[in-house]
Amino acid sequence: MGLRKVLLGWPVYRQLTGADPSGRGAAAQSARSAALTARTQSADRVARSVCPYCAVGCGQRVFVADGQVTQIEGDPDSPISRGRLCPKGSASKSLVTSPLRQTKVRYRRPYGTDWEDLDLETALDMIADRVLAARAQTWEDVDDQGRPLNRTLGISSLGGATLDNEENYLIKKLFTAAGALQIENQARI
User: Fold this and answer.
1) pLDDT for 42-56, tens place per residue?
2) What CATH code would you report for 45-97?
């Protein structure tokens, strides 16, 4: 490789001899960065969504290529967030695409040391049986003075931040109907 070719490839030389004396444009651009394209450019379609993390409801654009999520960005048309996302919202692509994401129901028996995979129907039956048993064991019809209570303090709910407002609303209705009093979600804490 000749000295001239080395000099022409050097950003400082391009800055001093070219049309970009400030070094903030083409002079600072390497061949690698010139060949880069946006992850959103290869998308087949763009779906609009809402960030799943908190109750704010920031708008998101989900870019999909070949059936896979390639990028998630803030939606500039959203009147709530106007294209901005917090650090958690900006990283929400990993919520969907992470290879560490659990996609099976995992269960560890009492005093067990190993996890086992369960099918969803078995896991839901186990949860329902335990909720109903705890409710039956701790149900309070009336207080000491005979006033009606119709409640249980044996079950409670703490919804996660990845649940949206509608899911938290339905969980609140379900647990209230079951007589639970301690119902909260992370979006409100």
Assistant:
1) 778 999 998 887 778
2) 3.30.200.210
